[in-house]
Amino acid sequence: MEVLGWAGTALVIIAYYPQIRHLFVERCAWGISVLTWLIWLVASALLLVYCVVGRELLMCVVQGVNIAAIVTTIVLVRRSNNVCPYHRRITETIARQ
């Protein structure tokens, strides 16, 4: 069963990668709600406390990864000052309709 948990943790890391990469490379935060990410940060912090108290190592690692990825995302969103070509086309298409 523990292998499933570690596989899930790996998927969490993989899931965050495209968003963080896009923010880092393109400096594009189009459509990202910082408030949503802050709520996820608080939720992950609470879950981390729960896992530490319950001495659940695997879930502590998952929440640690979540917190690191969420903080990275928020920091990159705050420094973003660009709309990438892909999102610019979407915005222009919507504006024309």
Topology:
Blueprint: H1 2-26, H2 34-54, H3 57-79, H4 85-96
Helix pairs in contact: 1-3, 2-3
Description:
The protein is mainly alpha-helical and about 100 residues long. It has one domain (about 1-95): Up-down Bundle (Monooxygenase), CATH 1.20.1280. About 85% of the residues lie in helices and about 0% in strands. α1 packs parallel to α3.
Relevant terms:
mainly alpha, elongated, Monooxygenase, 97 residues, single chain
CATH architecture: Up-down Bundle
Number of strands: 0
Helix tally equals 4
Number of domain units: 1
Give the helix/strand class: mainly alpha
Radius of gyration: 16 Å
> Main sheet?
none
Helix-strand topology string: HHHH
Provide a concise account of the structure shown.
With 97 residues, the protein is mostly helical.
